[in-house]
Amino acid sequence: MDQAQGFTPQPLPPWHRAVLKVGSSLLTTPDGALTEVHAQALASFVARSRDAGREVVIVSSGAVAAGRGLARPDRSTGLPGRQALAALGQTRLVALWQGLLSVPVAQVLLTHDDLRHRRRYLNARATLRELLALGTVPVVNENDTVAVDELKLGDNDNLAAIVAALVDADVLLIASDVAGLFTADPRTDAQARPVQDIPALATSSFATAGGAGSKAGTGGMRTKLEAATKAAAAGIETVLFDGRDPACVARLAAGTLTGTRLRAPQSRMAARKYWLRHTPPIGRVLVDAGAAQALQTRGASLLPGGVVGAEGEFTRGDVIEIGDGQTVFARGIAQYAASDVRRIARLHTRDIEAVLGYSYGETVVHRDDLVTLGTEP
């Protein structure tokens, strides 16, 4: 059956920031060489989205496949060989995206260690946020050259979900070589029917997914559903669409999806607030009356000038309480350790680096990492 048929156009979920995952099969020819054939439409989607005031982070596979087209066939087997291929192909991959976009492209290579270690996680998030603020398009890939686990099946699908949570994306867009999710594998089952919308991911959904999708890639529909599950846990919706179909991609740029929409059980902000409210705090930051009012009524970030002290011992990335000495009214993620907070308390943000010798930014707790405590769940 024609996979493009049967999917009824539907609105994309509202979004300002998205992560776009692009698989190897969309960027390489059968012999492994990089090609712009499908990337052109996807780059146009990114450009049109940026023109509309939106932000896009690209998670792009293709480095190993691109490197394979440059190496001697007898020297590209085994894990060391694949890691070498990633090193060869990564520069070509970034060059491809830069050639298709008129704004600067920034290469960001991550491993799971970067995302499991809390301080490195926060550093990666701060870097990606700053790159977006600078008007660039970050192109994220796994650092396959030095990481072993990252060459496993479909890992970039899951990496995309992690990056979506990392940058507080509103939606995860997965460009694939199929039109969306089907009741069976449409390549082998003529009775396969498209699945338009999944209100909440269930285990039964995985039964419709197959294994690896293509020779060039490392993942299939199952890993995409796993990624959607991770994104949903963070309150982020996922959409699957055919990245080979320029008309489908053009409709996407106009706010219309022709593919599968996998909904999250709650909004991104609700998921984040729930997590902050129910995560045991490690310590406490005390603030003055002006900071307390700004945090509770104006949705402000906590700056060092409003801090009067810190209780307990916490590290950067820990969840802490915020109070005024009498009432605890907020929780948030600390950008500085307790010892640092005590040293920069009451100071202007411009003095942070002079006092500490380094700076993780001007906020003690950023407003995106802060929730005020009330009666809501």
From TrEMBL:
Span of domain PUA: 283-365
Which Pfam family is one of those matched by this entry? PUA
Write one Gene Ontology MF term. Answer: glutamate 5-kinase activity
**What does the record give as the reaction this protein catalyses?**
L-glutamate + ATP = L-glutamyl 5-phosphate + ADP
Task: Identify the EC number(s).
Answer: 2.7.2.11
Locate the residues binding ATP.
Answer: K21, S176, D177, T218, G219, G220, M221, R222, T223, K224
What compartments host this protein?
Cytoplasm
Q: Where substrate is bound, by residue?
A: S61, D144, N156
- Which InterPro entries does this chain map to? AceGlu_kinase-like_sf, Asp/Glu/Uridylate_kinase, G5K_ProB, Glu/AcGlu_kinase, Glu_5kinase, Glu_5kinase/COase_Synthase, Glutamate_5-kinase_CS, PUA
* SMART domains named in the record: PUA
Q: In which pathway does it act?
A: Amino-acid biosynthesis; L-proline biosynthesis; L-glutamate 5-semialdehyde from L-glutamate: step 1/2
Q: Which UniProt keywords apply?
A: Amino-acid biosynthesis, ATP-binding, Cytoplasm, Kinase, Nucleotide-binding, Proline biosynthesis, Transferase
Broad class of the protein's primary localization:
cytoplasm
Q: What does this protein do?
A: Catalyzes the transfer of a phosphate group to glutamate to form L-glutamate 5-phosphate.
* NCBIfam families assigned to the protein according to its UniProt record, in alphabetical order: proB (TIGR01027)
Into which family does the record put it? Belongs to the glutamate 5-kinase family.
Q: What is this protein called?
A: Glutamate 5-kinase
What's the source species for this entry?
Answer: Luteibacter flocculans
The major lineage groups are:
Bacteria, Pseudomonadati, Pseudomonadota, Gammaproteobacteria, Lysobacterales
